[in-house]
Amino acid sequence: MDSQVRFDPGLYQGTGGYYEQFRLPYPDAMIADLARRAAPSGRGRLLDLACGTGQLAFPLRDRFTDVRAVDAEPGMTEVVRAKADAVGAAHVRAVTARAEDLDAEPGGFELIVIGNAFHRLNRSLVAQRACTWLKPGGCLALCWSTSPWAGPRDWQQALGRLLRSWQNTLGASGRVPPGWDRARQQDPDHEVLSRAGFDVAGRHEFSVEHHWTIPELAGHIRSTSFLPPSVLADHASAFDADLMAELGRHTVNDRLTETVDFAYELARTSAPA
Description:
Blueprint: H1 16-22, H2 28-38, E1 45-49, H3 57-60, E2 66-71, H4 74-87, E3 92-96, E4 109-115, H5 123-133, E5 134-145, H6 154-169, H7 182-186, H8 189-196, E6 199-212, H9 214-222, H10 229-232, H11 236-247, E7 256-268
Parallel strand pairs: 1-2, 1-4, 2-3, 4-5
Antiparallel strand pairs: 5-7, 6-7
Helix pairs in contact: 1-4, 1-9, 5-8, 6-11
């Protein structure tokens, strides 16, 4: 059984602009590999669940005639609509809804993608519903990327300590449910997908070297659920100064180098006999 960990639905309120500007894009090689393995017909439909500002919907859009980008946070879907207008992608439609509550027709999609969000959803429910929303032989891709404060470099360790300190100072430590990842360790995603009726097809990994400036990291942190603008509030300038003081000693040519690991896990519904 899937042990459900509940995340506050308002965690990303006010982060849309920062999310769009400072979240790293999925690598072109990963998008191309996903498209090759999922093999969309060019005439089908794509569903991007918990879409953020469309980090998957937009790079995949040209392979589909209809794209539905769904997120529970209105600020995210506002950005999606503005981007679709700006690039003339009338077939990209934003929907403000929880993934668990989405009203979608059975067998309507060739591909469903979920970027850095499956852990925040009711995994069993969403997997079961996604299995019915896909055409026979359709694919679900769980896409992931690592965070800059979670790596082995000295500056990443320093950043992790700084973030924990500020979370404690601002009373924000409980915004992310304690032990949120324990459920996934006890009941891994691939088992959740298998129970829902998917054939799990494998995990595919891609690494990219990225060079951050400290202001870019400050923006990236504001795109998160644990230190968004609403939490930093009047302390934002002090936080930025602390970030600059702590990380400045680690920079080389005003940059901090990270090896970002991206991956997607592919699952497929049974094809017709």
